[in-house]
Design a protein that fits this description.
Helices cover 82% and strands 0% of the residues. It is mostly helical. The longest helix has 41 residues. It is elongated and about 65 Å long. The two termini are 19 Å apart. 25% of the residues are buried.
């Protein structure tokens, strides 16, 4: 039976469920799905698929982090927070902030830029090549079309910021899992 300071098994299960769902999804999307799809799908198909999937990914990630923060905070009142518990709360806050930034700003701007890039490329008969390696045709288009070159630069910037936020979430979730693993007395 749980005590005043020990959460119930249901709360523990929910916390593990949200954290493992989030981290598993982050690992799959970051290190598996994107690389596989980018190597086997036509570029525009890959870009369109990412534009559809990423809003769900960012919202699920931020929801899981928010629910984990809520459950964790409920079980650790602020007047009894240790440094270790404060660190966990900060990790959840950072993950929420990074996911929300991606869901509401970086991800959306990146998707909009991708749509603009695709439109320009389609008008030049490009985009159906498989893989993300820059083709000679796209290099020539970048060299000859200043607006396309500017879109490519904007995409690189926002994609990098989005990726940084995503990696931040992967690290925060991984550290939270490490914290939980350190508390396990048995498997």
């Amino acid at each position: 039976m749980p005590t005043d300071t020990e959460p119930s098994n249901t709360i523990k299960l929910l916390h593990l469920l949200f954290l493992s769902t989030s981290w598993g999804m982050q690992i799959w999307v970051t290190f598996v799905a994107g690389f596989v799809m980018s190597r086997h799908l036509p570029r525009h198909t890959f870009g369109s698929l990412q534009r559809e999937l990423f809003p769900y990914y960012f919202h699920i990630s931020s929801t899981c982090a928010f629910l984990n923060l809520t459950l964790f905070a409920m079980c650790h009142p602020s007047e009894r927070l240790s440094e270790e518990h404060t660190t966990q709360i900060i990790l959840f806050f950072v993950c929420i902030a990074a996911s929300v930034l991606n869901a509401q700003w970086f991800g959306q701007v990146t998707s909009d830029i991708v749509a603009d890039l695709h439109a320009v490329e389609r008008s030049h008969g490009l985009g159906q090549e498989v893989g993300l390696v820059a083709s000679e045709s796209r290099r020539n288009l970048r060299a000859s079309n200043p607006s396309y070159r500017q879109l490519c630069r904007q995409f690189a910037l926002y994609h990098a910021l989005s990726s940084l936020c995503n990696l931040c979430c992967v690290v925060c979730s991984g550290l939270s899992l490490y914290h939980l693993a350190a508390k396990l007395s048995a498997l």
